[in-house]
Amino acid sequence: MDLGTLLGFVLGWVVVIWAILLEPRSAGIFIHIPSMLITFGGTVFSTVMNFPLKDLAKLPKIVAIALKEDSYNPQEVISSLVHLADKARREGLLALEDDLQNENDEFLKKGIQLVVDGTDPDLVRSILEIEISYLEERHQMGQNIFKFVANMAPAFGMLGTLIGLIQMLTTIDNPDAIAAAMGVALITTFYGSLLANVVATPLAGKLAIRSRNEVLLKELMVEGILSLQAGENPRIVEEKLKSFLSPQSRNGLQEFRRDREQVMRSAS
């Protein structure tokens, strides 16, 4: 579980509810069922109209991706690729087939299998880049759903406000009723802004970050796979792949490799 996402979501609601409860005399007006139906119901049904049901059925899985801890670990991938490059240089590309059974990442596994099978390097790059493009398309769908909700929620909030203002005109002869009706009319805008800014927009942003990290990791894998296929020196492979990392992450790579070597020595 990503604590940042969960903490931001919970604290966002806590701050809003706390601000409402600071004035308990008017807190009850923020609960208005017709306004909820207009804002939340309208947003949901317009989203259902806009996207295929098969894509909306994936929403629980998409939300889980935003909430789970980021598994982005380029140091581990670089260390594995350098190890494979060293093995390929010493024993040949066919020797990498033994490592396929222990590889958990399907993308990396596929790339290594293509190399072991003797596939042309340009074709290997083309196949893997197509896979990355399709990955980006799938990720973009989840982001688009929440971006759409972020746009529609305030729009339906404004629609509810217009409905409330029209109803308010029927009580124009009663000043007290006008004030109450105005408060109710503005609640729909409040609901729309809350849904857009506390839920939809942050989730779309977090999904975009997750997607960017995963695509960067896949691009790193492509360069590593092609380097070991070309028989490049493992040190050159490492230096090339380190260009994908920030200076701080490059220092972390050295620490990761030392820890991994200690584990391997202990295991042996």
Secondary-structure topology with pairs:
Blueprint: H1 3-21, H2 33-50, H3 53-56, H4 59-67, H5 74-91, H6 106-116, H7 121-169, H8 175-229, H9 234-242, H10 247-267
Describe the structure.
The protein is mainly alpha-helical and 268 residues long. It has one domain. Helices cover 79% and strands 0% of the residues. The protein has helices at 3-21, 33-50, 53-56, 59-67, 74-91, 106-116, 121-169, 175-229, 234-242, 247-267.
**Fraction of residues in H or I helices:** over 70%
What ranges have pLDDT less than 50 throughout 5 or more consecutive residues? none
Strand residues, percent: under 5%
Q: What multimeric state do the chains show?
A: single chain
Mean pLDDT comes to: 84
**Estimated radius of gyration:** 27 Å
Number of DSSP-assigned strands: 0
Tally of domains: 1
Instruction: Summarize the helix and strand pattern as letters.
Output: HHHHHHHHHH
Bulk shape? elongated
Structural class: mainly alpha
Number of helices, where a helix is a run of at least 4 consecutive DSSP H or I residues? 10
